[in-house]
Amino acid sequence: MACDIMVVRISARREMSPEVQEVLSRFGCCIRVRLGLHDASSACSDEGLLVLQLSGEHSEMQGLEDALNSLSSVKAKMVSLDD
Known about the structure:
Elements: E1 3-10, H1 13-26, E2 31-38, E3 48-54, H2 58-69, E4 74-81
């Protein structure tokens, strides 16, 4: 079973979260699991990390990665873990 994971770093979380959410909603059908992490020691950290487990067509996953990487302060990277 292949496991497709995308890691997304958002360095201006408060500013970029509406745009990131719009992209995630647009590609929501290929997102199985979404885990959001930020620095809990700060009341509202401006750095964030998303871990997404994806499923479906690789072209749609690539579209998600490209759309996220087109946003300023956002870096997305696919990782595929195959058997």
